Amino acid sequence: MKFTLDQIAGILGGKVEGDGSATVNRLDKIQEGKAGGISFLSNEKYEPFLYQTEATAVIISETLLLQKEVKCNLIRVKNPYTGFTQLLEAYSQLTKQSKQGVEEPAFMDASSSMGDFGFRGAFSYIGKNCKIGKNVKIHAQAHVGDNCEIGDNTIIHPGVKIQYDSRIGSNCEIHSGAVIGSDGFGFAPQEDGTYKTIPQIGNVIIEDNVSIGANTTVDRATMGSTIIKKGVKIDNLVQVAHNVIIGENTVIASQTGISGSTEIGKNCVIAGQAGIVGHIKIADNTTIGAKTGISKNITNKGQTLFGFVAMDLKDFLKSYAIFRNLPQIQQRIKELEKKD
Q: Over the stretch 197-223, which tens digit does the pLDDT of each residue have?
């Protein structure tokens, strides 16, 4: 797809210096820019590349004073990094949303419906009584079970498995290999030492504007719903157990595990490989560091937690300053004991 610089400036609210009719069809790093590409400059250490690049255009700050002549066209904006991000978003949406129609073979039960401008990839499956909104893209080998709902403009990438009764909102994106609505981990111990499976009869509700990474699993509730609220962003390889509730605009990094029936507040940040036990509540605006274990309720909003088991960050850093020096402290104690 080609765009003129005038079109791009209109998207970004910027101003062209040079040939506004020039076209670009590619996004380049400034140090690797070639004809037909557009790049950006936000970090001053890359400014020398501005005078060398062969890119057709570069997005720069409206306040940047040029030290030399440039060969490329310029688009001046308030914030080049934000502007380039807007351009990436626009390009990504156009690319992802461009497909329409049905690739054969694909299956959708006659009792299900799909809105206008949708796409169903080859070997995709849509079960009974599903309601799928407008402009939804369901790519190859994706599975949508019976009685599911999917809102407008949502993208289901190849190989996603959405189990029966799941509810997915509008403007969501679920990446390849993710499983939504698999059985929760419920087993009742028996007197003979075996375990009896507890039926998982609830569902999963994913609200609007949620992103779920590749190979992440969100288990269905035992009863009721596992709920991912609007604006949540979940990385690859995250486990969300049955009956978990994740509050609005919380972000969760890769390899985190959240045990059943835990409630996580709004605007939390959970770093990679964090482990959270079940049946607890975590307050809004909590930050949980990488590899941190959470074993009890977090009631104070806005805390930053780190360590295993988690403690207040300041307390952890004080303790760490001591235990990293334990070998030297031990040696000093031995020397003092010898003197006695």
A: 999 999 999 999 999 999 999 999 999
- With contact defined as beta carbons under 8 Å apart, do 50 and 41 qualify? yes
Residues 6+ apart with CB under 8 A from 72: 18, 33, 50, 53, 54, 55, 56, 57, 58
DSSP 200-230: ---EEEE-TT-EE-TT-EEEPPSSSEEEE-T
**Burial 40-49, CB ≥16 within 10 A → b, else e:** bbbeeeeeeb
175 is catalytic: no
- Structure token pair of residue 314: 């300041």
Going along 149-202, which residue ranges are E strands? 149-150, 155-156, 161-162, 167-168, 173-174, 179-182, 187-189, 195-197
CB count in 10 Å sphere of residue 102: 16
Token couple for 288: 């949980």
Q: Residue 284 and residue 146: Cα distance in Å, rounded?
A: 35
Catalytic residue among 139, 157, 242, 279: 242
pTM above the 0.85 mark?
no
User: Domains in the chain and their CATH numbers?
Assistant: 3-96 (3.40.1390.10), 101-263 (2.160.10.10)
Q: Which of these ranges, 169-173, 242-246, 305-309, has the smallest mean pLDDT?
A: 305-309
How does pLDDT run across 253-298, given as a tens digit for each residue? 999 999 999 999 999 999 999 999 999 999 999 999 999 999 999 9
